[in-house]
Each structure stands twice: as C-alpha cells, then as structure tokens.
C-alpha cells in the first residue's frame, strides 16, 4: 500500500538576508512555515536545510560567478530545476518566455502577472538550493511598481532580478518590432530596484534590447548608464556575432550575461568562447522546454499511430529515476518513522 504523506513540502532553508530588515525576515519566515521543510533522509543530494547555508541567494550567485563563467539553464518547472541542480549546474534561470509558454500557452509579450511570477519563483526556489535568476520582463510598471516587484521576488527567494528596457507590451528579444523606453526611464527603474532590495547582494540585472532596435553603440551607452544607476550585472540582448560580444565586454566593466537562446539573432557561442571573452554567466533560457516539447510531440505521434507507448520506454525517465529525483524514499522513511515513535507517557 502506498502511504499517504502529510502536507510537508521540501524547501530551501529560510533565506534570511544578511542586510534584511525585521519585516523582511518575518515575511520569509511565514512563507517557509506555510510550505514546511522536512529533511531528505534518503536523497542522493543533501537537503538544503542540512547544508547550513548561511549566505543569501544573491551572495551565492555572485560567489559562483567569481569562480568562473557559469552556465545557467532555464527551468520550466520545479522538477526541471531539480534536475538542473542534480546535474551539477551552479544556477538556474526562470525565463519569462518559457514561463509564458509552459504554464499558460501564451507568447512572450508580458501577459503574466507579478503574482504568478512570484508564485513560480517560490516553487522553484523551494525545490532547489542553487540560486535562481528571475526574468521580470519590464518590471510590471513604473518605478514604484518595480519597488513592490523587487520586494516580492526577493522574498520568494530570487538571487537576481532581470529588468529590460522595452516598452510594454514587450516582445521576445530576438524578434523585430521592439520599442525601447528612454534611458532616463530605465535608469529610474534601476534606481527603484536597488532601493527596494533588502539584501545588497541581490543582483539587479539590467538587460538592454538596444542592439536590435538601434545599434551596438547605443546598447553600450545604455549599459554604461544602467551601471551608473546601480545595475550590478548587464545583459546585452541579441548581439549578432562574436565580435560584438567581445566589443561589448571590452566597453562595459561589470559582470555580463550572454543569452544563448536557439533560433535567434545571436550565434550559439560555446561556454569556452564566452568565458574567454569574460562573460560571467551564459543563459540557455528555453533549451530544456524546447527539448521536452519536441519529445512530447514525437511521443504523441507514436502513441496515436501505434496505439501503445512500448517502443518509447527506452526514451523515458524510469519510475525509479523519477522517484530518486523526488526523494521518494526519504518521504517513505519519514512516514514510517512518524508511526514507529513510541507513545508519550501523557498519551499512553
């Protein structure tokens, strides 16, 4: 008989920020108690609570990038995030495009809400201990709206919050027809984001889409202004060749993020290429979703035509592999342990 477990859900340790106010700590604590935090007694990967992680998510992301250029795959759900961590990647990415498509079957034009993004952020950070970079699109409004967005996403466990300089409704960074806000307006948003964070290690990641709208020179000038406004890292979107990636890195002296999305305007440079150019992180925002959906499409075709999935078994994650990733054994061990405890003297 399969045991019915309680309501505890494994989450990362309470993410108390080293610079957080008392109010911030209370908010995070209440979230943690709502979700619960059992130990993963049978897991191949230690439960985050057992690692005694004291550094904030932002600090862990910054430290990881100091050790070398990090590869950051996009996690389209919590289980994918767990697999990213299990495979050994130092961080994960919550892509707005993958979130829109995967959760809502909607295009990447800014249709999801702050509440929905915060909930997804919380689910991903609950499932893993590696830091999460969160794509917040244009920030859900103007400067004051952005203050609240940063507060909510930081409380949900984000290590970095990405903001872009497009006008809402936005478009995918590798499509034509984008429109930019003024540099002054974007800088105001960045200042609001910096002032709203409780932890000074939370990374404010400023993305500019100016290369696809104007030219490389404008992208560089905007990036320099964003840094002056307080951006910690910069993300130049849709650069068109290796030489442009190199020129941008030479001109902008802060940690840079490269987007290696497929079927876009940028060439697919290798991790080694981008590390040599000095980039801090390389994003693969929709890679896993694209792989998964292509397999879904192929599998459905075979299932419909053959009337059975038997020929697909070798391409599937096995039941045991899924259970290992979920730490099923740890749940069973705790469940049995709860019922094996002798009754207390007061109740005997």
Describe what you observe in this structure.
By secondary structure, this protein is α/β, with parallel strands linked by helices. It folds into two domains: 22-287, TIM Barrel; 294-335, no CATH class. The protein has 14 helices and eight strands. A five-stranded parallel beta sheet has the order 2-3-4-5-6. Helix 3 (78-87) runs parallel beside helix 5, helix 6 (143-155) runs parallel beside helix 7 and helix 7 packs parallel to helix 9. The protein is globular and about 65 Å long. The two termini are 28 Å apart.
A few lines on this structure:
This protein is α/β, with parallel strands linked by helices. It is built from 14 helices and eight strands.
Average predicted local confidence, pLDDT: 86
Major sheet characteristics: 5 strands, parallel
Give the strand order of the largest sheet, numbering strands 1, 2, ... along the chain. 2-3-4-5-6
CATH superfamily heading of the largest domain = Phosphoenolpyruvate-binding domains
**Distance separating the two termini:** 28 Å
User: How many DSSP helices?
Assistant: 14
Tell me the name of the CATH class of the largest domain. Answer: Alpha Beta
Q: Estimate the helix proportion, in percent.
A: 40-55%
- Examine the coordinates and then state which fold CATH places here, giving the name of the CATH topology of the largest domain: TIM Barrel
As residue ranges, the low-confidence spans are: 1-52
Strand content: 5-15%
Which structural category fits the helices and strands? alpha/beta
Beta strand count: 8
Number of domains: 2
Helix-strand string: HHEHEHHEHEHEHHEHEHEHHH
């Amino acid at each position: 008989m399969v045991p019915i477990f309680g309501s505890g859900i494994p989450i990362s340790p309470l993410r108390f920020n080293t610079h957080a106010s008392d109010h911030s700590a209370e908010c995070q604590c209440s979230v943690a108690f709502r979700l619960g935090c059992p130990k993963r007694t049978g897991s191949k990967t230690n439960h985050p609570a057992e690692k005694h992680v004291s550094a904030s998510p932002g600090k862990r992301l910054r430290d990881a990038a100091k050790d070398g250029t990090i590869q950051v795959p996009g996690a389209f759900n919590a289980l994918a995030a767990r697999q990213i961590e299990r495979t050994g990647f130092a961080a994960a990415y919550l892509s707005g495009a993958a979130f829109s498509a995967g959760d809502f079957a909607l295009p990447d034009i800014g249709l999801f809400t702050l509440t929905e993004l915060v909930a997804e952020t919380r689910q991903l950070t609950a499932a893993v201990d590696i830091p999460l970079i969160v794509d917040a699109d244009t920030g859900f409004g103007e400067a004051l709206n952005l203050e609240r967005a940063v507060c909510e996403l930081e409380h949900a466990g984000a290590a970095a919050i990405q903001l872009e300089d497009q006008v809402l409704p936005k478009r995918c960074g590798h499509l034509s027809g984008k429109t930019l806000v003024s540099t002054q307006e974007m800088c105001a948003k960045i200042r609001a984001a910096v002032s709203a964070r409780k932890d000074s290690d939370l990374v404010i990641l400023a993305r500019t889409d100016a290369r696809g709208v104007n030219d490389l020179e404008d992208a560089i000038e905007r990036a320099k202004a964003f840094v002056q406004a307080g951006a910690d890292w910069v993300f130049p979107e849709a650069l068109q060749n290796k030489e442009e990636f190199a020129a941008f890195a030479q001109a902008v002296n802060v940690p840079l993020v490269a987007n290696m999305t497929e079927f876009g305007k940028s060439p697919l440079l290798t991790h080694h290429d981008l590390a040599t150019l000095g980039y801090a992180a390389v994003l693969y925002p929709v890679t896993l979703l694209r792989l998964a959906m292509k397999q879904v499409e192929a599998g459905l075709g075979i299932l419909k035509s053959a009337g059975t999935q038997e020929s697909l078994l070798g391409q599937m994650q096995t039941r045991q592999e899924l259970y290992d990733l979920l730490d099923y054994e740890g749940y069973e061990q705790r469940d049995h342990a709860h019922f094996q405890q002798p009754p207390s003297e007061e109740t005997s």
